[in-house]
Amino acid sequence: MQISKANLQPIGALPLSRYFSQTASIAEGWKDAADIENATLQSSETESERNARAGYSIFVSNMTFDATDTHLHEAFGKYGDILSVSIGRDGRGLSRGFGFVTFGEKEAADRAVIEAHNSFWHGRRISVDHRKESSAGSKRQPRADSTPTNSLYIGNIPYEASDADLNKVFRSLDGIKDVRVAVDRNTGWPRGFAHADFHDVESATKAFEYLSQHNLAGRQLRVDYAETRRITNKPESD
Known about the structure:
By secondary structure, this protein is of the alpha+beta class. The protein has helices at residues 24-29, 34-42, 47-52, 69-76, 106-116, 163-171, 201-211, and strands spanning 56-61, 82-89, 95-103, 120-121, 124-125, 127-130, 151-155, 176-183, 190-198, 215-216, 219-220, 222-225. The protein has two domains: 5-130, Alpha-Beta Plaits; 151-225, Alpha-Beta Plaits (2-Layer Sandwich). The radius of gyration is 21 Å and the shape is elongated.
């Protein structure tokens, strides 16, 4: 059953028979936040997802958070035989709004990308692309041209990393004063990077060396020195 403009409504329980709707006029007017985060999310995976990958995988983002593995399997099963389906989840087991579908044949994956990308599924315009291989096995060398400060930028943090995962990483660092994980103002979901302030440059330098070689949930962290945050008091007005 195809979704038409008339029945694009918020849903509770998702019927398994609903597929996609290519409504171009609506798609042009939608602001898709997943377009901004797509590049980062594509390489984000859990251990089970890496082990399950044996065929041709696609990455599906901006999904409704109510969707399950079964919904995803039913929706994409029409394109070909599916080997595995996995939805990205946080430490509480809640959906991150993206998932992976692995087909047994390349033609099926290609067809899914061509037909389902930018289509509507359960009231949301989804993004579908071929899964990009992560370079998690390669070690990223620290930048030699960065001037050490007592503040670090930490990027490429996996979206499915839980608070416990992050706490475990930062708890191992000495001299840390403050950690700020960036979140989206509208959704409240992590944006994949953080800033950490240290009591001195020496502590920040040691953390830089450690984090630059650290792998979190299959992703190599990107680390650089940042400008120290300065808090200034506004002059009182008469």
